[in-house]
Write a structure and sequence with these properties.
Nucleotidyltransferase, domain 5; single chain; 5-stranded antiparallel beta sheet; 330 residues; 3 domains; alpha+beta; 13 strands; 6-stranded mixed beta sheet; 26% helix
């Protein structure tokens, strides 16, 4: 039994006692399978494990808004993992997409550079075609997912809104708010980047192997020691090959088309909106004398103040509230 356990450890060197026991259980059955504590002791005896250091005086980091992720395809997380160089010096930046509830790794693609929407959009299209559309997409505040412009919008996130996907962003400098995805990144780094492979092609093959193992074989404690593939199912909402028409605004709102320079016309004057919304229609709802709440579809962007000729941006992602409409002007 010890030899079988050591063979499993050689096959999956990054797995600990809980995951190895689950795998061994499938091979030998409950009656013959050693307890987790026995497996831990065998691994220590062979120098194949280390005791985790206890960190004192630190609170367990919050999952933030991901705590509401109670169903498959409710929230997907996307990120560009920190870059590293392959053996031939090529800069590799993997794009990763996961389902927050099942932890299923939907996409794991090596990119030679993190150069914005044109690089990653085809990967999202392929993922949406295969798995459908999530209710929400959670990212950090960096390119190509977000920008410093109005609403933090980028061309990529504008496309998501048009597809009916809600935007979620972690607070700057708070990666623990996307803790499930970050934990996967740590496992990925240990598996395929220490050391990196010789070329980008070889690195992609390693990422493909990692994704298969992570989804199909690696037990996950939060899933009752089942692998993500045993839990995940594609979304019921299919990807539309043609972008849907924009959702309309109420009749008493003003509507404006955002021009190529990222501006709208207001009484003969140009008002800065954001370049990301070029070609999109925005809605302006009257809230007070000369003050208008600005929306892109259901996303609240801020207040347009006529006397100042500018939009005071909102610092939070908020959706259009239900009537009666009230807005805090502070």
């Amino acid at each position: 039994m010890e030899l079988e356990l050591l063979a499993l450890k050689a096959r999956w060197p990054l797995w600990g006692a809980p995951k190895l026991r689950q795998r061994l259980l499938r091979q030998v059955g409950e009656e013959r399978c050693p307890a987790e504590s026995t497996i831990s002791e065998i691994l220590r005896r062979h120098g194949l494990s280390r005791r985790a250091r206890t960190r004192r005086g630190r609170a367990v980091p919050s999952q933030g808004p991901l705590s509401h992720c109670q169903a498959i395809n409710q929230v997907w997380s996307a990120d560009l993992k920190g870059w590293f160089r392959t053996g031939d010096g090529t800069k590799c930046t993997p794009l990763t997409i996961t389902d927050g509830h099942s932890r299923y790794l939907l996409c794991c693609q090596a990119l030679s550079q993190s150069s914005g929407q044109l690089t990653v959009k085809p990967l999202f299209i392929g993922t949406f075609r295969e798995y459908g559309l999530p209710e929400a997409m959670r990212t950090d505040n960096g390119a190509p997912f977000a920008s410093v412009g109005l609403g933090g919008l980028s061309a990529l996130s504008v496309w998501w809104v048009r597809l009916g996907i809600k935007l979620e962003r972690i607070e700057p400098g708070q990666p623990q708010q996307n803790g499930r995805h970050e934990r996967m990144h740590r496992t990925l780094k240990e598996s395929v980047a220490k050391p990196p492979r010789s070329t980008l092609g070889a690195q992609q093959r390693a990422l493909d192997d990692f994704r298969r193992e992570y989804n199909q074989e690696r037990p996950h404690e939060a899933l009752g020691q089942r692998p993500p593939a045993a839990v995940y199912r594609p979304a019921g909402r299919e990807y539309p090959e043609r972008l849907p028409e924009q959702r309309g605004y109420p009749n008493d709102w003003q509507k404006r088309m955002v021009r190529k320079g990222g501006q709208m016309k207001w009484k003969g004057h140009d008002v800065r909106v954001t370049q990301a919304l070029w070609g999109q229609e925005i809605g302006l709802k009257p809230t007070d004398n000369g003050i208008w709440a600005v929306y892109f579809e259901d996303l609240y962007l801020g207040n347009f103040v006529e006397r100042e000729g500018r939009i005071q941006r909102s610092h939070r992602l908020e959706s259009r509230p239900t009537e009666p409409f009230e807005i805090n002007l502070k």
